[in-house]
Every structure is written in C-alpha cells, then in structure tokens.
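Q: Please design a sequence for this.
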C-alpha cells in the first residue's frame, strides 16, 4: 500500500525539536511579538472574515504569522497584500487542492485575469490589483503564484514515499527562499527583474536550494500533527518514518517519529551552516559588478532574516502544535 497508515504509528511519543538558527544575523525579530502593527493584524483578520472563504464560520485568528516574520524588512504597504496572497493560497490549498476539488481548466482560469472567476478567482485578482497599485506588477505576482500552485499539484502526482532526499525536495522546493520568490524580497526596491547573472550563478542557486529546503523541512516538522492522519506522503517526517520501518516488524518501537524529527533537525541546522559559508563565498565573488554586489548584499541579509523568521513563525502560529 502506497498510502500513509497513521494507525501504524499511533503508539509513538514525540515532541518537535527546537531548531537552532546557525547563521549570525542582526535582527530584532522575536517569537513573542509579531513584527507588524496591531492595526495591520486586525485589518487582516477583518479581511479574512469579510472574504468568507469558510462561509459564515467566523475566523477568530489569523491563519499564520508567516508573512510578518519572513517579510519583516518590507514597509507595511507591501506587507498587507503579501499577507493576503499567502493566506489566500493557504486557504486555496486547504479547501481546493488538498481535496482535489479542481480540474486543470479550472486552475488555468484562476491565473487568467480575463477568465470568468468564482469566489477564489475574484478574491485572488483583487489582491493582485492591490500589488499593482503599489507598483508591484500584478503579472509578476501571478507568475510566482502560478508556479507555486503548480509545484503543489506536482507533489500530489508523485509517489514521495520511496523518494530520496534530493528527489523529495526537487518537488517541494518552490517555497519562500527558492529562486521563484527572490523578487519578493526586493519589492520595495523595484527590483522586479534580478540580473540573470545573479539568478544562474551556482552559488546563488545552491543558497536558494538550502534555504528553501530548510523552510520546507520546518513546515513539515510543525505541520506533522495536523497532517498525521492524511494518507499523503507530503511530509518528510512521514517519508522518513516509512523508510525507517519498511523492513521492521509491527508493532514498532515508540521512537520512530522522534528519530525522524531529530534527523530533520540535524539536516536543517547543517544546511544553515552551509548557507552561511556560501553567503561568504557570494560576497567575496570577484566577478560581480557594483550593482550586482549591492543587490546581493541586500538579498543575503534578507534571505537570512526571512529564514530566521520561518523558525519564529511556527512558534507564533496556532495552526501548528508542537507536542503529541
């Protein structure tokens, strides 16, 4: 059977391990306080309720604190539409994609501004219009979101259970930190087209892979409880649990999940260390011109702070429960 059978692991005892950020940065971010004003947070909650994605069921908490933490360096006018588009895709994933409640034609229509739209499509393009109103081209954001949603769909069609680490994250890699999202770190600087010399540089590509993998692994650690009963192998904790037990006789020892989570923690922390080393190589790379060097300095600072924000967001989000 290729599906995850949670009953095989119902005897497990585990706790999500604390991940240590192994990159030195100067930041005021902390887990106890959102790095945005109460006004923005309250307005976002009002937007969630007014949008009625869940019908008349009231939304009493914002869905996650990802955007405030990973885009803390952006001025607030950029935070507002980023907050909305990230929650939009979170809800779209929960209600449409995970339930396989779509056709290929429907997905294409969502990202076609001129198509006839349902509630999801109408709300999506309203958000993209907000980006356009602050000089962030709606088509830039549409291209990013289309690629991200397609990566989610692709993960549904692949049997991830027996995948290697590299195979798994080749599918999961289009998350914040990946090259697809680099432009969003520079929205306030109007750098909508990062020089191709930067985008194809092997060091930059490796840095993006490392940070993106870390962000995906953090999500897998903290979302595991929520996804525990799902049959999909769309969480690396599940993949490792299967690979650790496929040659064992049931019932398993009670430390399989914890062992898997601890291994993921080690992978994340060693990846941070490598990312820090690559950052130094990028800064000292002799072939950058002055403009490229300036942009890279900003990208490095922001991609590191965003990665640290990923850790904090899961400590400040009611969707993620760390104990079982």
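A: Design:
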């Amino acid at each position: 059977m290729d599906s995850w059978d949670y009953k095989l692991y119902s005897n497990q005892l585990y706790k999500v391990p604390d991940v240590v950020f192994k990159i030195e940065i100067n930041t005021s971010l902390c887990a106890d306080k959102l790095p945005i004003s109460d006004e923005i947070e309250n307005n976002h909650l009002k937007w969630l309720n007014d949008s009625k994605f869940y019908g008349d069921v009231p939304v009493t908490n914002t869905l996650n604190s990802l955007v405030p933490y990973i885009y803390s360096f952006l001025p607030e006018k950029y935070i507002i539409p980023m907050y909305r588009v990230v929650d939009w895709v979170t809800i779209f994933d929960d209600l449409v994609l995970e339930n396989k409640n779509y056709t290929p034609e429907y997905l294409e229509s969502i990202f076609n501004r001129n198509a006839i739209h349902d509630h999801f499509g109408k709300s999506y393009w309203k958000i993209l219009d907000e980006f356009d109103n602050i000089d962030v081209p709606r088509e830039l954001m549409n291209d990013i979101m289309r690629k991200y949603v397609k990566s989610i769909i692709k993960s549904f069609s692949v049997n991830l259970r027996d995948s290697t680490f590299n195979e798994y994250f080749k599918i999961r890699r289009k998350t914040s930190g990946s090259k697809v999202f680099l432009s969003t770190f520079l929205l306030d600087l109007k750098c909508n087209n990062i020089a191709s010399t930067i985008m194809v540089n092997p060091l930059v590509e490796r840095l993006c892979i490392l940070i993106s993998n870390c962000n995906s692994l953090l999500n897998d650690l903290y979302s595991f409880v929520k996804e525990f009963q799902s049959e999909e192998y769309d969480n690396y904790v599940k993949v490792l649990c299967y690979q650790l037990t496929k040659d064992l006789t049931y019932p398993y020892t009670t430390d399989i999940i914890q062992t898997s989570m601890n291994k993921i923690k080690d992978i994340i922390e060693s990846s941070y260390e490598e990312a820090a080393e690559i950052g130094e190589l990028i800064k000292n790379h002799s072939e950058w011109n002055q403009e490229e060097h300036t942009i890279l300095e900003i990208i490095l600072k922001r991609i590191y702070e965003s990665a640290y924000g990923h850790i904090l967001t899961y400590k400040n989000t009611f969707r993620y429960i760390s104990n079982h």
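Q: Thanks. Anything notable?
A: The mean pLDDT is 89. The domain at 6-315 is CATH 1.10.600.10 (Farnesyl Diphosphate Synthase).
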